[in-house]
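Researcher: Quick test of sequence recovery. Tokens follow.
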């Protein structure tokens, strides 16, 4: 198994995070307490820590121009294979998730061509999920 990353973010409500990450994204839940919960985010340890004073969704987002879109920064996510990415797009679309950047192919015909999408969790954390037809050959292509 490759080295999994560990990422901790703030959320305004633990039950809301459980609904989003557990039910919508399908992340299995690990350890938890009243103030934090671990999720298995595609094999990575992802932790939501309660901050009931967290501001609105757009308070801490900066946007950086990439391929003609305003990419929200900071953001995090996972690189998936194309079938898993397409299945996630379908699940999110059916659930009525509002995309910050609609699913599309970025850098079409160039090195690093990738499928990508951006959306926010209920606490305003920005997520990007992307996919490549050939992850090993395209992930760091220049």
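Model:
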């Amino acid at each position: 198994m490759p080295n999994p990353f560990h990422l901790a973010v703030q959320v305004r409500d633990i039950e809301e995070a459980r609904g989003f990450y557990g039910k919508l994204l399908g992340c299995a839940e690990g350890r938890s307490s009243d103030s934090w919960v671990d999720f298995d985010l595609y094999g990575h340890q992802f932790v939501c820590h309660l901050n009931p004073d967290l501001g609105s969704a757009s308070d801490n987002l900066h946007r950086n121009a990439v391929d003609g879109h305003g990419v929200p920064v900071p953001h995090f996510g996972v690189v998936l294979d194309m079938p898993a990415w397409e299945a996630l797009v379908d699940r999110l679309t059916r659930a009525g998730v509002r995309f910050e950047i609609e699913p599309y192919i970025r850098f079409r015909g160039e090195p690093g061509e990738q499928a990508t999408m951006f959306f926010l969790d209920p606490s305003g954390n920005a997520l990007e999920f992307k996919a490549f037809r050939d992850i090993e050959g395209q992930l760091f292509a220049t």
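The mean pLDDT is 93.
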